[in-house]
Amino acid sequence: ERVEVISVDEVYNKIQAMAEDGNGFVKTSQIEAAGINRAVLKKYVDSGLLERIRKGIYAPADCDIDEFALLQVQCSSLIFSYGTALYIWGLTDIIPHTFDISVPHGENISRLLRDNQKIRAHYIMKEFYSLGITEARSPQGAMIRLYDRERCLCDLIKDKNQIEKQLYVQSIKDYFKNRPDVRKLLKYGKAFGIEEKIRTYMEVL
Question: Torsion angle, CA of 10/12/13/19, rounded to 10 degrees?
């Protein structure tokens, strides 16, 4: 029997380039914005060139899925935080089996939570949401948004009762051992009203 081989054409090359720019993923909305008819997506999925990862999200079939990048493409306001961010910063060796994410208070992420069982969501008051957002590479190499080390430390200290003790102790000790940015830490601490607690840690460590 004759197997029809679909040649890799310019349109596919364009989609692939968009995926490369997007940490391996491309959304239907981006494809339409580029003037490509969304009907071609089915053609590429059927021929095995593209894979439908989630509703409205596609990836070239041969690429490794970076879970961090996938979560971020599903929700643009998602920031990796708490234990997950601490792991990326090397301030804990506890491998996160749950993704700690922060989103602005009031944001509806029910679909994201339905699609991903491994998420622990933190809803952040709008005035604190953007404090300390930065970028770093995920363990697989994608550029992702997360809170910086100082913001992570403030979150630990202010939510101490909800944090695993081993994570808490190790992260704080390791932070002060590795070039702490004390000025930034105190500035954030002041915003959260925990400046005194931070000063106490600084004296002890």
Answer: 150
pLDDT digits (tens, 9 = 90+) for 170-192: 999 999 998 899 999 999 999 99
The pLDDT of residue 204 is: 83
Predicted model pTM: 0.88
The answer to whether the CB of 79 falls within 8 A of the CB of 146 is yes
For 22-148, where are the alpha helices, taking DSSP H only?
28-33, 39-46, 67-74, 82-88, 110-115, 126-129
For CA atoms 20, 22, 28, 34, give the dihedral sign: negative
d(CA 164, CA 77): 26
Residues 6+ positions from 82 with CB-CB distance below 8 Å: 100, 102, 120, 122, 152, 155, 156, 163
